[in-house]
Amino acid sequence: MRKGIVTLVVVAVVALAIALVGPPVYKLLTSEGLQTASIAEGSGEPATVGVDGHWETVGGVGQNSTEAGYTFDEVLPGQEKTTSGRTASVNGSLVVSDGVLREGAVTVDTASIESDIEKRDIHVRDNILHTDRYPEATFTVTDPVDLSSLPEDGTVDTVTVNGELTMHGKTNKVSADLSVLRTGENVIVQGQVPVEREAFGIVSPEFVASQIAEEGTVDLLLVFGLQN
Q: Where in the numbering of this chain does the Lipid/polyisoprenoid-binding YceI-like domain appear (predicted)?
């Protein structure tokens, strides 16, 4: 009889532990985080300014807001999933003359990137990106880009941009096809810069159950305003 009571108590304690711990663990294993947005569909209007000039990132315009982040696949016990994080702490500038992008740079505050789970964010900051030592990631344009044919009617076009990505203390050449929208007094740039994490010295800690895929992306949605 006493053994039966003890068994019931143990079962009750385990059930309570599952009820308390199960939901957050399940969320951690299944949540896909917060993906950097794409250019909002139908948000374009005819351009009211030329493309030449000095452009700086602004918070947003209409349905589009400046943000950047990461997307990587994870392999967990018995499943695969995609995980993303993002931040609005982004600064960028462009210099365009005679319809050609001459200079461009974007800096992302990696220490402020968040998903929808604080525990994951702490792990990414402390054990993967090491943001205490490398608090920023920077993309710098290295080759001129012809922007003279970008449409003025509020529709999206695509340009290929070559540059250097500095992240986690290492710099590598990268290339990306980016969507560009001229709308009103703004230019909006959106896309994914492919990265191989080991090229940046980013490793998947051995003490965690999940393994990060070798290839991922740095995600961008940048709203630029023309400076007077």
A: 54-225
Which H or E element spans position 18?
A: helix 2-30
Instruction: Give exposure, 150-176, as e/b (b: 16+ Cβ within 10 Å).
Output: beeeeebeebebebebbbbeeeeebeb
**What are the tens digits of pLDDT across the range 144-186?**
999 999 999 999 999 999 999 999 999 999 999 999 999 999 9
- Residue 58 and residue 226 in contact, taking contact as beta carbons nearer than 8 Å: no
Taking alpha carbons only, the member of 63, 59, 88, 37 closest to residue 225 is 59
Cα–Cα distance for residue pair 99/76, rounded to 1 Å: 47
Neighbour-count burial of 38, counting CB atoms closer than 10 A to its CB (0-12 exposed, 13-18 middle, 19+ buried):
middle
Distance from C-alpha of 162 to C-alpha of 177, rounded to nearest angstrom: 9
Joined tokens for residue 93: 């500038």
